[in-house]
Specification:
The two termini are 20 Å apart. The protein is α/β, with parallel strands linked by helices and 368 residues long. The chain is built from 14 helices and 13 strands. The longest helix is centred in the last third of the chain and has 21 residues, at 329-349. The protein folds into 2 domains: 7-167 and 351-366, Glycogen Phosphorylase B (Rossmann fold, 3-Layer(aba) Sandwich); 170-349, Glycogen Phosphorylase B (Rossmann fold), CATH 3.40.50. It is globular and about 65 Å long. The strands form 2 sheets. It has a 7-stranded parallel sheet with strand order 3-2-1-4-5-6-7, with helices on both faces. A 6-stranded parallel sheet has the order 10-9-8-11-12-13, sandwiched between helices.
Length: 368
């Protein structure tokens, strides 16, 4: 007999392979809840142990229709939404069907719109205004989860607000680094979206001027960036030294990172990134990797305080840093040691996602 889901994670904008979705689902499953996921992409890439219903990506019109309909199709006693456009329909559905709603605001969506080139079109101002409205509605959920202190809606605008930072789930990450001996081949990794502002081109160019290093790229790329990558990776200065694995579920993505030395995070200085610590930085450290990062203020503070990496201005200086590490492996070993110590402390502290799971258990008990 199939059990009714306790929780339905509903997303019309994220792939079911999304890392935060996987971390949340894993915590809910550990708490003994039955979980279903409604999202995009390949169902086999969804969280293990959850029932996954997935649809292909389509245009904005179909996405809007799904945002209206999918909250009503969800079977769980608790709905967990992770896209702003699903919030209005989910609020109505949970009130009329006597369910409970958790709205997870992954990022500062209004600031993030600056990273979307299509918003330069005439509809841009309308989309920004609409985004502010639906993010405000997220505060009316039974529980509003935000990815950092600065991410709206503010505590005063929420019924109940929980800050759940994008910390790694160590059950998905190979914590013990391998292959860091003096004789191991030097390898860097980039894990994440390869959108232009995320620094995908910059990490490839850094690798191009760092002989002796190889690079693994793990993540999806928009069509324009995919075309650029495919052409660039055929050139002699990087051919055979850069491997692009495409989108992978979180556990598979971090298996690629096993045995690497450096994680690259050369994000652009956009309003959304400037105020945040990218998830990949936490994950690199948790995996025991040293970090080379662009000078985003909060990342600079973290990496320099730990002594677990280096700050660079651009791809040229990133490539120079890689060459420096080739010449002096002692510098690399010191940063790897610092990252490993931080990872051990994180493991001892326990998963913050278990707090979300505890709150969800309570809400499920209250729902119809």
């Amino acid at each position: 007999m199939t059990l009714r889901p306790d929780v339905s994670i509903v997303t019309t904008g994220h792939d079911v392979a999304d890392a935060r979705l996987h971390r949340e689902a894993a915590a809910l499953l550990r708490a003994g809840l039955v979980v279903e996921v409604l999202g995009l992409g390949d169902p086999s890439a969804g969280p293990k142990g959850a029932s996954v219903r997935a649809a292909p990506r389509t245009g904005m019109l179909r996405r809007t229709a799904r945002a209206l309909v999918w909250p009503w199709r969800a079977s769980g006693r608790v709905l967990l939404t992770i896209d702003p456009e699903t919030v209005p329909s989910a609020l109505l559905a949970t009130r009329l069907l006597r369910k409970r709603l958790i709205s997870d605001v992954h990022e500062d969506y209004v600031e993030l719109l600056a990273d979307r080139s299509w918003l330069r079109r005439p509809m841009g101002p309308f989309i920004r205004t609409l985004t502010r409205v639906v993010v405000g509605l997220a505060g009316r959920a039974d529980l509003t989860v935000v990815a950092d202190d600065h991410v709206p809606p503010a505590e005063t605008a929420c019924r109940v607000r929980l800050v759940l930072r994008n910390m790694p789930d160590l059950t998905m990450i190979p914590v013990t680094p391998a292959g860091h001996g003096d004789e191991s081949p030097l390898r860097a990794v980039y894990v994440g979206d390869l959108r232009r502002s995320r620094g995908g081109r910059e990490v490839v160019e850094a690798l191009a001027v760092a002989p002796g290093w190889t690079l693994d790229l793990v993540g999806p790329a928009p069509a324009e960036e995919a075309a650029w990558l495919e052409e660039r990776l055929r050139r002699p200065d990087v051919s055979g030294r850069v491997r692009w694995h495409g989108r992978q579920p979180p556990e598979e993505a971090w298996q690629v990172a096993r045995g690497a030395h450096v994680g690259l995070a050369l994000l652009a200085d956009t309003p959304a990134f400037r105020a945040a610590i990218p998830t990949k930085v936490y994950e690199y450290l948790a995996c025991g990797l040293a970090v080379i990062t662009s000078p985003l203020p909060r990342v600079v503070e973290l990496v320099t305080e730990l002594g677990a990496g280096w700050v660079v201005d651009d791809e040229t200086s990133a490539g120079q840093r890689l060459r420096d590490l080739t010449a002096d492996r002692r510098l690399l070993d010191e940063s790897l040691g610092a990252a490993a110590r931080w990872s051990a402390e994180l493991e001892a502290a326990g998963s913050p996602y278990d707090v979300l799971a505890e709150r969800t258990v309570t809400l499920a008990a209250q729902a119809r």
